[in-house]
Amino acid sequence: MEILVQPLPPIKQSGFTLIEVVLVMSIMLITMPLIYQRASVLREHQTIKHFELELENLIYLAQITAIAEEKIVTLHFDNERRFVTVQTDLFHEIDHLSYPNDVTVKAGTHSLTIQFNYKGSIDQAGTIMVLSPHYTYKFTFLLGQGRFYVDAI
To answer: What pLDDT, on a 0 to 100 scale, did the predictor assign at position 96?
Structure first.
C-alpha cells in the first residue's frame, strides 16, 4: 500500500508592512486638521448665512406688521441678551430671533433700534453690521418705503 503525499501549495503572504501602515497613518494625521479647519469655516458660513436670512425675514415681518396694523413697529437688537425683537409697543412683542454664539451685531451708521412707521417706511437711513470671525454682512437701510439690501463684505 502506497501513500501518495502531495506537496502543499505555497502560502501567499499578503498584507501591509509596518512602514506602509505608518506612512498611511502619518498622511491621515497631517490631513485631518486641515479637513477639520475647512469644515468649521463652512459650518460658520452656514450659521451666519442662516442668521442673515432669518434677520431679513424678521425685517420684512416688521414692515408688514407696521402696514397691516397701522402702528409704529420697532426692531431692536439686544447684544447683552443676544437676540432681536420686533414689537409694536414696549410690552407687545411680535417675534424675536436669537443670535448664534459666534455672531455679533454692531451699529454702523444706524443705531441698533429701527422703527417702521404705519406706512412701512423706516425712521432713518443707515447701516448695521452682522459679524462672525470670518464673515461680515452689512445691512443698508434706505429712506423711503423701508427698503434695504444686504452686502457680504
So the answer is: 93
